[in-house]
Amino acid sequence: MLQVLTTGEGVPFLRSPEASFQGLADYPFAPRHILFEGLRLAYVDEGPRDGPVALLMHGMPTWSYLNRKIIHRLVAAGWRCVAADHIGFGRSDKVTDDRWYSIARHVAAHRLLIETLDLREVTLFCQDWGGPIGLAQAAEQPERFSRLVVMNTWLHHPAYAYTDALRQWNAQWQTDGLFGINVPEKLSLGWFMMLPLGHMKPADLFGIIATGTYPTLTAEQEAIRRGYDAPFVGLDRAGHAGPRRFPLSLPFDNPEGGAAEAQARWFDALLDWPKPIHFIWGGNDAVFTEDWGRAWAANYSQASFHLLPDAGHFLQDTHGEAIAEIVLEQMKAKQ
Hints:
alpha/beta; Rossmann fold; 8-stranded mixed beta sheet; 3-stranded antiparallel beta sheet; 11 strands
């Protein structure tokens, strides 16, 4: 097991060895770091410094690897792409104390990154928990952002109706829930990701948990699994505190940890967003449904809405090139 380190303030954390990230398929990006509360926040910064800036967010249980296909396409088009790993994920340090994590802290970490790099004229790409964390930046620093790309996410507000799928997700990560019990001892996050990405069936997941029987993956699928497992190789339950805290920070269950009041303020503030906003939605997602995405987009006269009918919740992985092309075409149409 990895040695537990501590910050100057005594916060315990683990640091994934860089060897775990070597040779990942389609992810040749070198890590960079800033310090946040004595912890390394890792990010990639690819493409020309003078190109249009994309800030790409990830959610649970992923990391910047999720956005690799969008990064490749945008860099080829002359963009600068910045994509960080939230504390607890990817190459960033992983605090082992569950109580350390809050949405407010994740927001503050990304605010520091934006200010440290002095990012301006930013196009935000956000999905899942990257929605609240990323949209907070646009709500609080609108002068730094020129365009929003919103994908299968939400902002908490009193009128928002949480789906049964999202409530079940929360329940499954409670201490007595399916994932609360079995991750990581029986089910790694890389293997978990094979289900929503369409690389295995529910029966395969239950087979892993019940009997330790793993389905056969193609070489391409195995490379993707390794990519999502890489941040957590050798980490025990304490090293998974970051992923565990996201589903347990949903505002209907944890209003304080989930920044419920702040999220509602950000939602209201962004209702007056005057700049381009593009909703790109995976239609095969029971967590954040097409109906919700269309209802949200209807608040903006300038919004575009693009449905990817066969895309699920993690559309950046399965449809990354298509997402990049949609944004590039939208920008070309406005010139």
